């Protein structure tokens, strides 16, 4: 059976600018510096202390976000531990229980669930978040 390929008709333009949508000049592009100035973000990106079950503590860099779950009246949070020698030493098994501590806050239990494609680790937890989430106390009182 022969394969048919699509070919434009002679009167049909192949590269019609009006069919492409807006030009890139019509958009306002931002860079990471513009986005980092927002203070109302509910995520945390920075240093943390990860402690394994045997008591070994590791300085790591994490990026996590907490989401308030009103039906459970709790916070579920998740994110990733950036790849580093400390992260590789700490993450030995799947679903490994650890504690995570940020900026002198109380340590909270977490799970290192899996390795991500960029050689970091996925981390998840429930209950208290390792960082202060804006408005969580107010939402819990509603």
| Alpha-beta content class | mainly beta
Topology as a string of helices (H) and strands (E): HEEEHEEEH
The coarse overall form would be: extended
**How would you characterize the largest beta sheet?**
6 strands, antiparallel, barrel
Radius of gyration: 23 Å
Number of strands: 6
Q: If strands are numbered along the chain, what order do they take across the biggest sheet?
A: 1-2-3-6-5-4
Classify the helix fraction into a percent range: 10-25%
| Beta-strand proportion | 35-45%
Q: Alpha-carbon distance between the termini?
A: 67 Å
CATH architecture of the domain at 42-140: Beta Barrel
Average pLDDT confidence is: 80
Number of helices: 3
CATH classification, class level of the domain at 42-140: Mainly Beta
* Poorly predicted residue ranges: none
What does this structure look like?
The protein has a domain at 42-140: Thrombin, subunit H (Beta Barrel). The N and C termini lie far apart (67 Å). By secondary structure, the chain is mainly β. It has a six-stranded antiparallel beta barrel with strand order 1-2-3-6-5-4. It is built from three helices and six strands, in the order H-E-E-E-H-E-E-E-H. The longest helix has 6 residues, at 85-90.
């Amino acid at each position: 059976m022969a394969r048919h390929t699509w070919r434009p008709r002679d009167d049909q333009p192949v590269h019609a600018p009006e069919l492409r949508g807006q030009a890139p000049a019509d958009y306002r592009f931002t860079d990471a510096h513009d986005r980092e100035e927002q203070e109302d973000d509910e995520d945390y990106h920075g240093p943390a202390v990860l402690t394994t079950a045997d008591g070994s503590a590791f300085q790591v860099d994490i990026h996590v976000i907490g989401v308030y779950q009103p039906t459970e009246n709790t916070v579920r949070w998740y994110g990733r531990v950036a790849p580093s020698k400390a992260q590789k030493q700490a993450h030995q098994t799947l679903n490994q229980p650890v504690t995570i501590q940020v900026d002198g806050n109380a340590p909270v239990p977490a799970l290192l669930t899996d390795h991500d494609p960029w050689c970091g680790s996925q981390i998840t937890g429930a209950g208290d978040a390792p960082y202060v989430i804006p408005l969580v106390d107010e939402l819990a009182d509603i």
